[in-house]
Design a protein that fits this description.
The protein is an alpha/beta fold. About 25% of the residues lie in helices and about 15% in strands. The protein folds into 3 domains: about 70-375, Catalase HpII,  Chain A, domain 1 (Beta Barrel), CATH 2.40.180.10; about 450-520, Hemocyanin, N-terminal domain (Up-down Bundle); about 530-670, Rossmann fold. Bound molecules: CIS-heme D hydroxychlorin gamma-spirolactone 17R, 18S (HDE). Pfam families: Catalase (PF00199), Catalase-rel (PF06628), Catalase_C (PF18011).
Length: about 675
């Protein structure tokens, strides 16, 4: 149990215990009938239980977050590997024995609280570290850059991105005129936009996405020396994504897809984990990078230029007890830093320092939100701040000011042992101006494009075509193609072709640089941990084989479900009943990572739904396996079995052998085969 868990226990109240009472603790006689003048008569105003119950219901909502409204959270711990005293005095980064409690909230950006988990969108990755020196909030995203360079453009960006004001459409989607109008008029967005068009915008799981602090921050050590730093979270399970058609279907079949995935992984003990990595840049190297101002949040520093040093491990190991109390009420503030970590002059970061505190005042209706259990520091809080809405503490004493002699002059400022702002030298005229070092808006979009594998490039082109295909204004489409032409001529042509825009004339040469670390194709592909496999079964399957296959996959950590035309049991080849996990109708291929069709149930090939499972899974690049009569179903799905020898994720065997399970496991771990020719598959 962490210090934070112990602190939270004091606030836990079981829903299901003892006698029902009012909020005043008065036992309630009956909660099914309001107090009436006669059984058919009018209700009486004096019914305090009715009044209170309805009043409490009416006030259940607080304003949802203006961005990142939809999210899900989990508790966990962070541990640093080795002391980082060389760079920082932050206690949680210098003591390898410290297990720092954390709460992490993952989110989408555009949609409202009830929207689905899988739109094409940026994902938030916000971590509250409850350190012994107070709370540090690392409020990051799953993409390392941002759309804009100056926070003053954030309201414009978000207005353009969110549903349009006249009709509140479309929900949780960037594929509309106002978003593309804005970004094509504000070319600094072009780098982030290409990330948004990539598979990064549709993660398979929160557990399989990276996180980034985005801005350059500062670490400060005991000698007052400052080192610039960029924070990276790298998922142990690798960085993997859905495909767009799948993501759209999941939005209907299971809008809670990513949320459920995280919840189930943690509740089954498969704790997700990320490594914290730092890109460290000594002060004196700040101006060394060609074309990159480290204060510009639309730029990365490629890992090949400044390596990411692994420094610690985050593990999420406990689901929240209550969604509202914890996940909804957690209040991240970018300004929450601890001694040893400091800000830089990145103008996007500077604006965030105001926004997060301000937004919490709106959400909580007052300044005491820091007392809400999930937000409370584990470090002692001692100061002379007081009163306000929802004061939960009872400050004791009379000297609520400093200096004082009536209270022993306490609490006393810590002096140099407290948070000392880095004494950066600042000098300049007041002016509304962007630095010229922020002027390049295209070369890193080109870097990203050049770093993609061929299938990633195809997905990006398809995404631009989809999004711009929804844009009604032709001048906006033309503008986008003009921008893409400055990123890469071939990309511009490919997109233009798909959206009815004339091919542009080549204007600039691609610089040819790339950064292999940017490609998801280079992410680890070794584990089947928590991968979900649907085995399509019907009467006649061989129980022994299905069980053996299930056991092999389960032993390696995969989750195997038996899906049949109806729920309950099927009759196996031995004539015995075998329990299935659920009926096919209640699920869909898009909710699984892979499909297997075993031998012995030839009738399944005549079940259109079962055939659709296989066709769709194949189309989405998933591992599809079949043996014996199962092959008939794949044929009906028009899966070209003749390609099996060249397709590592199409495992087609004439009959069962244990090799099938081995090969299938390999394909499952590889996530997807996106090199398949899928155009002709009817799904
Ligand atoms: Fe945020 N952002 N943001 N943002 N952001 C919010 O704060 C804002 C930015 C991010 O799970 C809001 O508590 C401004 C960058 C995450 O609770 C709000 C600017 C990055 C979350 C806000 C940015 C983020 C938020 C809404 C430009 C990645 C969800 C509710 C200056 C590094 C936190 C809230 C959670 C939430 C403002 C830009 C990440 C309105 C003004 C860059 C993960 O304060």
């Amino acid at each position: 149990m962490t210090t934070k868990d112990r602190q939270l226990s004091a606030n836990r109240r079981p829903f299901n215990e003892g006698v029902l009472t009012t909020d005043q603790g008065i036992p309630v006689e009956d909660t099914d009938n309001s107090l009436r003048a006669g059984a058919r008569g009018p209700s009486l105003l004096e019914d305090f239980h009715l009044r209170e119950k309805i009043m409490r219901f009416d006030h259940e909502r607080i304003p949802e977050r203006v961005v990142h409204a939809r999210g899900t959270g989990a508790h966990g711990v962070f541990k640093v590997y080795e002391p980082l005293d060389e760079y920082t005095t932050a206690d949680f980064l210098t003591d390898p024995d410290a297990e720092t409690p954390v709460f992490v909230r993952f989110s989408t950006v555009q949609g409202s609280r009830g929207s689905s988990d899988t739109p094409r969108d940026v994902r938030g990755f916000a971590t509250k570290f409850y350190t012994r020196q107070g709370n540090f909030d690392l409020v990051g995203n799953n993409m390392p850059v941002f759309f804009i360079q100056d926070g003053i453009k954030f309201p414009d960006l978000v207005h353009a991105l969110k549903p349009e004001p006249q009709n509140e459409m479309p929900q949780a989607a960037s594929a509309h005129d106002s978003f593309w109008d804005f970004v094509t008029l504000q070319p600094e967005t072009m780098h982030h936009v290409i990330w948004l068009m990539s598979d990064r915008a549709i993660p398979r799981s929160f557990r399989m996405m990276q996180g980034f602090g985005v801005h350059t921050f500062r670490l400060v050590n005991g000698q007052g020396r400052s080192t610039f730093v960029k924070f990276h979270w790298t998922p142990v399970l690798g960085t993997h994504s859905l495909v767009w058609d799948e993501a759209q279907k999941i939005a209907g079949k299971d809008p809670d897809y990513n949320r459920r995935d995280l919840w189930e992984a943690i509740s089954s003990g498969q704790f997700p984990s990320w490594e914290l990595g730092l890109q460290l840049i000594p002060e004196e190297r700040a101006f060394e990078f060609e074309d990159i101002d480290i204060l510009d949040p639309t730029k990365i520093i490629p890992e090949e230029v400044v390596p990411v040093t692994p420094v610690g491990r985050l593990t999420l190991n406990r689901n929240p007890d209550n969604f509202f109390a914890e996940t909804e009420q957690v209040a991240f503030c970018v300004g929450n830093v601890v001694p040893g970590i400091d800000f830089t002059d990145d103008p996007l970061l500077q604006a965030r320092l105001f926004s997060y505190l301000d937004t919490q005042l709106n959400r909580f209706g007052g300044a005491n939100f820091f007392q809400v259990p999930i937000n409370r520091a584990i470090a002692p809080i001692r100061n002379h701040q007081q009163d306000g809405f929802q004061q939960h503490e009872v400050p004791v004493g009379r000297a609520n000011y400093f200096p004082n002699s009536l209270g022993g002059d306490q609490p006393t400022p810590a002096g140099p042992a407290g948070f000392v702002h880095y004494p950066e030298h600042v000098d300049g005229p007041k002016e509304r101006k962007r630095s010229e070092t922020f002027a390049d808006h295209y070369s890193q979009a080109t870097l990203f494009w050049n770093s993609m594998s061929s299938w990633e490039k195809e997905h990006i082109i398809a995404a631009y075509r989809f999004e711009l295909g929804k844009v009604e204004s032709m001048p906006i489409r033309v503008r986008l193609v003009e921008h893409l032409n400055r990123v890469d001529h071939d990309l511009a042509i490919a997109v233009a072709l798909g959206i009815g825009v004339e091919e542009p004339v080549k204007s600039v040469d691609n610089h040819g640089r790339s950064s292999p670390a940017l490609s998801q194709g280079n992410s680890p592909r070794e584990s089947v941990l928590s991968r979900k496999v649907a085995v399509l079964v019907g009467d006649g399957v061989d129980a022994r084989i299905v069980t053996s296959m299930r056991d092999t996959l389960t032993e390696r950590g995969a989750i195997v479900e038996l899906l049949a035309p109806v729920d309950g049991t099927i009759t196996t080849s031995d004539g015995l009943p075998m329990e299935v996990t659920r009926a096919m109708q209640t699920m869909s291929s898009v909710l699984y990572d892979a499909i297997v069709v075993p031998d012995g149930a030839p009738d399944l090939a005549m079940d259109g739904l079962a055939v659709n499972y296989a066709a769709e899974a194949f189309k989405h690049g998933k591992a599809v396996g079949a043996f014996g009569t199962g092959l008939g179903l794949l044929q009906r799905a028009q899966i070209p079995l003749t390609t099996a020898s060249a397709d590592p994720a199409l495992i087609a065997y004439d009959e069962w052998t244990p090799d099938f399970a081995t090969e299938f496991t390999k394909a499952l771990a590889a996530h997807r085969n996106f090199d398949r020719d899928i155009d002709a598959i009817p799904a």
